[in-house]
Design goal:
single chain; 242 residues; 7 helices; binds NADP nicotinamide-adenine-dinucleotide phosphate
């Protein structure tokens, strides 16, 4: 029997990230619950353990380079490699201001978590992912980051005036392609997932989909076979327009 895969999901203590961890764990992987608050992480890992999933908490605040390095060192010490990284932690901090009224500070704050931290976390963990025979990196994007979708005035997503959030997810898509291109001649695949509009704390539980439904695309990309795609952007229904 081959060794179980080791997967880290950032922001896995609740919402879509929790369900991604649950789905990856259900495939038999050891799932590392990335949480910036150890107690919230432990509560989530406990719930998963009660379902028979092998879950461990890894304290990681994606905005804190010291915390990210410590998490990478711990995974190295305890597992020696990482097979799956899901960069799920994300924030939405604006209140629907028109772009012409948007304070740049809100863009900076949003990009720090949704874009720059993905680079910090990926770079810290890439040495461990390179040791995997089939590394998979999934970045949790959004349909709101799709220029194809949001530039269509008939599409309901064109009505969300979220300059900071939407553009951060467009940037995340570009980050995804950059890493996929760098890693194209390795076994590592890098893709972006669109979960759809899901009811979570991020949107006051307004979305029509469940977090479990939102997790489907990312779980699929995290467990892609060797012939699967890289440098793509996928919802549960297939390829999304950039
Ligand atoms: P959520 O319920 O608010 O969960 C966000 C998670 O990210 C929480 O675990 C949160 O931790 C964590 N997080 C935030 N900042 C962090 C940091 N600095 N370090 C570590 N963890 C941090 O939101 P969600 O809806 O599940 O969102 C998950 C991902 O899906 C995000 O990237 C979001 O942009 C994306 N997404 C969501 C939707 C949707 O409809 N909900 C649609 C498209 C994309 P705490 O509990 O400690 O705050």
């Amino acid at each position: 029997m081959s060794e179980p895969k080791v997967a880290l999901v950032t922001g896995a203590n609740k919402g879509i990230g929790y369900e991604v961890a649950r789905g990856i764990g259900a495939t038999g992987a050891v799932v590392l619950i990335g949480a910036r608050d150890a107690a919230r992480g432990a509560a989530a890992a406990g719930k998963l353990a009660a379902e028979g999933i092998t879950a461990e908490v890894v304290e990681i605040d994606v905005l804190d380079e010291v915390s990210v390095s410590a998490a990478a060192a711990r995974i190295d010490r305890e597992h020696g490699r990482l097979d799956i990284l899901v960069n799920n932690a994300g924030i939405l901090v604006e209140r629907g201001q028109a772009p012409s009224r948007m304070p740049v500070a809100l863009l900076e704050r949003t990009y720090a978590t949704n874009v720059f931290a993905v680079v910090t976390v990926t770079n810290a963990l890439l040495p461990l992912i390179r040791r995997s025979p089939a590394g998979r990196i999934v970045n949790m994007s959004s349909g709101l980051g799709s220029l194809g979708i949001t530039s269509d005035p008939e599409n309901p997503y064109a009505q969300f005036p979220l300059l900071a959030y939407n553009s951060s997810k467009s940037a995340l898509n570009a980050v995804t392609v950059s890493y996929a291109n760098e890693l194209r001649n390795t076994p590592i695949k890098v893709n972006a997932a669109d979960p759809g509009y899901c009811a979570t704390d991020m949107n006051g539980h307004a979305g029509p989909r469940t977090p479990e439904q939102g997790a489907i695309a990312a779980i699929r990309l995290a467990t892609l076979p060797e012939e699967g795609p890289t440098a793509g952007f996928f919802s549960e229904d297939g390829a999304e327009p950039w």
